[in-house]
Amino acid sequence: LLPPNPAKCLLMEEDELQEKEFFSWEGFSAFFDAWCERRKVLFFVKNSVPLSKCKWATAPPQPDVVEALKYSSVRLVCKDFRGSGKLDQGEQQKGCSANIVLKMSPKKDRLIVTECQLAHNHALCPIEFAYYFKKGYLMANSCLPVRTTNKISKQFVGGPDVRRLLSYCKSRDHGVLDVLTVLDGLFASDPGAKVKLVFMEDKVIVQTIFFLSSRMMALSRRFPLMLFFDRMVGLNEEFDLYSVLCVDGAWHGRAVAYCLTQQDTPDLLRFMLASLVQSVPEVKLQVRCVTLGMEIAHLEAVKELLPNARVQICRSQVLEMLFSKAQELGAAEDERIWPLLCRLAAAKSPAAYQQAVQEMKVILPQPFVRYFQRHWQPRSEMWVQFWAFETARDVNACELLKQHQRRLLAALSPSPTVAQCMLDLLAMEQWESGWGQAGCDGI
Ligand SMILES: [Zn+2]
To answer: What ranges do the domains of the chain cover?
Structure first.
């Protein structure tokens, strides 16, 4: 066997790429990811001309072609095109000239590799490749520059930031442009609104949007005592909606912050409370009680962010769950069980609670009692009425959250995009501020 001839291999590679055609940027992006992975080479976009910004003397390409191809030309260069900066026998390593040029075909229906020069002036290092390579980079980078989204992510953005992002935005990918347009409208009518945008790392895909209007901030300043944290699952196929509510003077739950986030984003409670406290710092010490649904995790975030607040778990949710858990763990059909669990949750003294626990040991099977002692006994202060925050004792948290969910369902378009959902929520908030005003006057 003869050793491989590097020069010949290189020519083969160039042959493989030269004149290769793609009917979409996505198609090229997928091909290029795999190609780079095989060869352990790192390229990035040096310059590009988006089709949406081209002027046409003759017939312009069809809108679906503009959407698919995205660019009329793109130059990709080796990561080391400026030189590696390493000194090589006292001399600076010269920049690498490996590059690839892609152009739209004269028929304006595909992208063609028109130039390709693949000789590198440095060794290719698999370790370096593994460190820097970002699959999907070309696809993600087609809307906004990743360095911009990485920089702005998780920070509060203002009207000027949004307008700057809009001016960079080259396409409608992933609904980012639509979201930015809604935010631009929000800041135009309410310059004091607070917004945090979180992008997925190294991708131009919105992961989370936290927002509250000036009116919502005013509500949280006026009614900071009790907050409710609610999650609406499956807003559309990708996103969940979280709300933080306060109770207004008419005992209605009113949103003081909203958060739209990709499903399964962890630790939203902490993110939302932290963002709320950053937006309205004076509530930090004023909140006395935060009531949450049962499925919310990382409750310790409440104490960390709102030091005077205690955590309460929605009592009727706990009750319903205990009842079905009892069936699951082998409780017999027994009409005493439901009233007993109700007495337990609604206990008005520690003695009444202890009494109900003793009865439980008689009526309910051992596995259930063990389950209860392990999971719910230690947290009894969070769900038994006696230990509830005084002002919250008369608030039916579950009903309040249900009413809010009903209003949301009525206000939201079916299966909305993130941008549409923001519009719906802002419209609902504006409408409610009308009847809320009457409620505020009542107290
Ligand atoms: Zn190179």
So the answer is: 6-82+94-140, 143-312, 315-392
